[in-house]
Amino acid sequence: RGAGASYRYRDDAAPAGTVHYRLRQIDLDGSSEYSPELRVRAADARPLSLSPVSPQPVRSGEPMRVDIRADAGAQLRLVLRDMLGRPLRVLLDETLQGSTVRTLVIPTADLGAGTYFLQLQGAAAAALRRITVIR
Once rounded to an integer, what is the mean pLDDT over residues 59-67? Predict the structure, then answer.
């Protein structure tokens, strides 16, 4: 039993509002038990967030997805960069209208195997995600 155990988790993709979480503990004998439900009220005023890229690693030629969360009216620029930080392409350069969550599907057909970065820049904040492309 995990009496006295402490856990910490950050959910960067959580929506604004109330979110419900539970832990599932699996014992060595295979039995499992759920913790009581924990309700967390996420702040509505997150200036900018970039979800983890999915899938990771991604096979060259298969699309990857990322969610961008920002306030409506935010000016955003998302750039794909190589390992040295050189820009390869601008994936998004616009002002968000209406919805504060935007899902982007990013093609990888022209990317060789290696490590890349997604850089999201807003007026008051920035975010960076590492991407691994495999053959």
Answer: 93
pLDDT at 46 exceeding the cut of 80: no
Sign of CA dihedral 96, 97, 103, 107: negative
Q: What is the pTM of this model?
A: 0.63
Q: Which amino acid is at 109?
A: A
Q: Which string of DSSP letters, residue by residue, matches the chain?
A: --TT-------TTPPSEEEEE--EEE-TTS-EEEPPPEEEEE-S---EEEPPPBSSSEETTS-EEEEEEE-TT-EEEEEEE-TTS-EEEEEEEEE--S-SEEEEEE--TTPPSEEEEEEEE-SS-EEEEEEEEE-
pLDDT for 5 equals 66
Report how far residue 16's alpha carbon sits from residue 51's, in angstroms, rounded to the nearest whole number. Answer: 14
* Number of residues written out for the chain: 135
Q: What is the mean pLDDT of residues 67-75?
A: 82
